[in-house]
Design goal:
- This protein is of the alpha/beta class.
- It has one domain: Spore Coat Polysaccharide Biosynthesis Protein SpsA, Chain A, CATH 3.90.550.10.
- It has 7 helices and 7 strands, in the order βααβαβαβαββαβα.
- It has helices spanning about 20-25, 30-45, 65-70, 85-95, 115-125, 160-170, 190-195, and strands spanning about 5-10, 50-60, 75-80, 100-105, 130-135, 140-145, 175-180.
- Strands 3-2-1-4-6-5-7 form a 7-stranded mixed sheet, sandwiched between helices.
- α3 (about 65-70) links the parallel β2 (about 50-60) and β3 (about 75-80).
- The longest helix is centred in the N-terminal third of the chain and has 20 residues, at about 30-45.
């Protein structure tokens, strides 16, 4: 059995290019600082998992921020272009060639824990699809054990309909689904106030 893979799907932490909605309220520099905190948190959580290959999937594999994690055993993989659905499809297609179970997480949350990630991998033993919903109607974690390209068709990315539409696609394909508990991602200053960062 090949090792499972955890993909950390993220942008390189570049001033003015990350957490742009949040930056409208707190400024680019503060938004970048929060984003780097989220990266460190999620990479630290990922490092707690045993016998799982950890892969940073990013738009800039040469960014200095990631080199420390490369030295810590993380692999760095190029994130392809295109809209989000296309990028997700390519990431899953590429990595499911080498792993029986692949879980992909976004890094826009401080709520992810090693226990939840382990639960997601265990959920794939008896289910085709695992999702960790977020309160704004999307999800921050998705796991698959086989590539299902059409899962990402006709999804209104960035809207409150993402989870609902994904579940509908899963139903259309007769995929069994395991949902973890709801998490909160950080998109706006209101989210920060809730988390009391």
């Amino acid at each position: 059995m090949t090792p499972s893979r955890l993909l950390l799907f993220c942008r390189a932490p570049v001033l003015g290019r990350v957490k742009t909605r949040l930056a409208k309220d707190v400024g680019d520099e503060q938004a970048l600082d929060y984003y780097q905190q989220m990266l460190r948190h999620n990479f630290s959580v990922a490092s707690q998992l045993k016998n799982i290959q950890k892969i940073i999937v990013t738009d800039d594999t040469q960014h200095d921020f990631f080199q420390h994690y490369s030295d810590q055993g993380f692999t760095i993989q190029q994130q392809s272009g295109g809209e989000l659905g296309e990028r997700l499809i390519r990431a899953f297609n590429e990595n499911l060639q080498y792993a029986d179970h692949v879980v992909l997480i976004g890094v826009d949350s401080f709520d992810l824990t090693a226990e939840l990630l382990q639960q997601a991998f265990e959920g794939l033993i008896d289910n085709d699809l695992v999702l960790s919903p977020v309160e704004d109607g999307g999800y921050i974690l998705i796991g698959l054990k086989q590539a299902v390209d059409t899962l990402f068709d006709n999804i209104s990315w960035g809207t409150p309909l993402v989870l609902q539409q994904t579940l509908q696609q899963a139903q259309n394909k007769n995929l069994s689904v395991f949902l973890t508990g709801f998490l909160r991602d950080i998109d706006t200053v209101d989210d920060l106030i809730f988390k009391r960062i």
